[in-house]
């Protein structure tokens, strides 16, 4: 399997690995899985409640290089964006950036789902 | 639910597998859309006679392998290759319980309506925690903890496999009720995550 340079870069030097305090009311946690391969991905965001801007993001992924790279890239992209902007990140953009082959497209879908799940969790906890 | 017996294209005798006739030793011309169960002359059931499957596979391989058709006509060579490919695909899918269950599920037309990524409540969280624990154990080299985890996960995996037979038995193909199929599908989803963990432990 030929990984693109960017995937190798993210895999060997992943950005933003770790966790945020999930009990902090200004965080959102998305936990998603890919049943076709058993990948598990957790993505967390820290939001500035006054501006709705994502000020920090962390991830932890158990899966292949493409899955790790997709989630690493996702955390890079959401930082500094508003919640609405982050919601509109598409998996196709991740595929293009990382030159993912067809068999790994589902990794980018997983990353998009993880972003949306984290945002949805943040919104739900703000309401509750 | 016994499969239809096919008759040999040369001598008319009935054959277990439609690929080859043992009475007159002839390769059969076969359709491309035989499913794996049909290839092995088995009914479309989860429970199969594993010895029977193994035995038939060995016998067919010995008769049909392309290596034995070196001096044969071009058509026979092509046929032996095609049939051997079908035989190997059928055998590798059916001889393993999880792949057999997945395959059988895919044959049901009702399967199209299922929620494909459904998991039991809290399962993903649990998988994530176990993966994290595994990271810690591997880092610290805690062999006894690793062995314990391996044993537990194997037990869980075996339990899932043992459920397949009873679930498939409960399903009535003509019924509208897809609940049993959904349960099977969900079980098969959990299997993938457990398999991933087991692969990490045993690599």
Task: Note the topology.
The complex is a heterodimer of chains A (128) and B (203).
Chain A: H1 5-12, E1 27-34, E2 39-48, E3 53-62, H2 65-78, H3 83-87, H4 91-98, H5 105-127
Antiparallel strand pairs in A: 1-2, 2-3
Helix pairs in contact in A: 1-2, 2-5, 4-5
Chain B: E1 6-7, E2 14-15, E3 20-21, E4 26-27, H1 36-39, H2 50-64, H3 74-94, H4 97-107, H5 123-140, H6 143-170, H7 179-202
Antiparallel strand pairs in B: 1-2, 3-4
Give the CATH class of chain A: Alpha Beta
As an assembly, this protein is heterodimer
> How large is the share of residues in beta strands of chain A?
15-25%
Low-confidence stretches of chain B: none
Question: What percentage of residues of chain A falls in helices of 4 or more residues?
Answer: 40-55%
Helix content of chain B: 55-70%
Question: What's the short version?
Answer:
Chain A has 128 residues and is an alpha+beta fold.
């Amino acid at each position: 399997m030929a990984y693109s340079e960017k995937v190798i870069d993210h895999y060997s030097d992943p950005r933003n690995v770790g966790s945020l305090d999930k009990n902090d009311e200004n965080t959102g946690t998305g936990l998603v899985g890919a049943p076709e391969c058993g990948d598990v991905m957790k993505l967390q965001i820290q939001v500035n409640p006054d501006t709705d801007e994502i000020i920090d993001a962390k991830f932890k992924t158990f899966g292949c290089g493409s899955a790790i790279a997709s989630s690493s890239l996702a955390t890079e992209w959401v930082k500094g964006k508003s919640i609405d902007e982050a919601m509109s990140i598409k998996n196709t953009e991740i595929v293009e950036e990382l030159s993912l082959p067809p068999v790994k497209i589902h990794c980018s879908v997983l990353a998009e789902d993880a972003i949306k799940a984290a945002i949805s969790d943040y919104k739900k906890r703000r309401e509750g | 639910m016994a499969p239809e017996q096919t008759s040999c294209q040369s001598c008319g005798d009935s054959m277990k597998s439609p690929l080859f006739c043992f009475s007159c030793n002839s390769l059969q011309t076969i359709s491309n859309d035989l499913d794996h169960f049909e290839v092995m002359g088995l009914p479309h059931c989860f429970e199969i006679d594993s010895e029977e499957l193994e035995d038939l596979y060995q016998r067919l391989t010995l008769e049909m392998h392309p290596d034995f058709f070196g001096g044969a006509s071009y058509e026979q060579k092509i046929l032996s290759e095609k049939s051997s490919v079908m035989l190997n695909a059928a055998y590798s899918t059916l001889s393993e319980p999880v792949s057999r269950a997945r395959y059988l599920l895919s044959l049901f037309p009702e399967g199209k309506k299922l929620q494909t990524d459904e998991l039991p409540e809290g399962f993903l969280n649990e998988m994530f925690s176990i993966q994290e624990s595994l990271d810690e154990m591997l880092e610290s080299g805690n062999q006894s903890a690793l062995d314990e985890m391996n044993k537990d996960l194997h037990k869980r995996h075996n339990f899932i496999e043992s459920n397949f037979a009873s679930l498939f038995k409960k399903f009535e193909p003509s019924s509208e009720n897809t609940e049993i199929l959904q349960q099977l599908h969900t079980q098969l989803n959990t299997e993938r995550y457990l398999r991933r963990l087991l692969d990490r432990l045993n690599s």
